[in-house]
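Hi D.,

Good news: the full-assembly prediction came through. Inputs first.
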Amino acid sequence: MNDWIDKYLDGVMTVREQVTFEELLRKDTALRQEYLLRKAIDQAMAEQDIMNLRDQLNEIMNVHSKKRLLRPVMLSVSAAILIILVVIGVKFLIP
Amino acid sequence: MESLTTEIIIDGIRAQDKTILKAIYYTYFPSIKSLIEDNNGSEQDAKDIFQEAIIIIYRKIKAGNLKIHTLFKAYIFAACQKLWLKELLARNEKMEHLAIFTEYQSTLEINLDEYTKHKQFQLYQKHFKRLEKGCQETLRMFLNEMSFKEIAKKLGTSYDYIRIKKTRCKKQLIRYIKEDPEYERWKNIDNE
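Then the structure:
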């Protein structure tokens, strides 16, 4: 049945097939449900602009949080180096 | 940086101008982040809600029915509030600890049908993006009103091959969608 839906959506049915299919759509709730889903998916796939916008926003937002994440990491790295230097200094300077 | 007027913002969103989008994010996100975090949400929730707000605004700009009577700052804040409320209701969160929602009147007009459709499309598009590039390309070509024969010719393959490929790709996409727990959540209820 799903192949029928796709055939209908792709517009490759004969007129007679179309009439039969539309009749079925009216009667069969499950079929109609599936038809509406597949139709909506087609519409969603056509929204290339929305997908682009989402990609752009994701990129902007992730760059932003990476930058913010970097700072604490660098701080702790510098703190660790400082501690090591102090420890070495203490060891060598005070025999 | 020149100041962000509502006009610049709307034009920027319409054109998907990266510089403007970035400016919008840096200018308005901090207040949205506090809003969400003060009301049972995480930073990731805040990002999701902010993104949804921008996309809904974009949809409205495209449809020619965006009406902003306040400053953009107030508009997007109210929009995010409204979207976060919808999200919390959908998650069945207890609302008693929320301070925000009674104080402000939202100016974003978005009805339930519109919102449901928006969430459904978001889900479909998310899974469409998971498909391999070849599948995405094939499925997209069918949407451009090209016939099977034209597509086969363009890709340099046979009519049968392209039909089988298209069916396979569509099947996979639908499987991805139906396996997603979000699918049941936003499923249409057939009232006809």
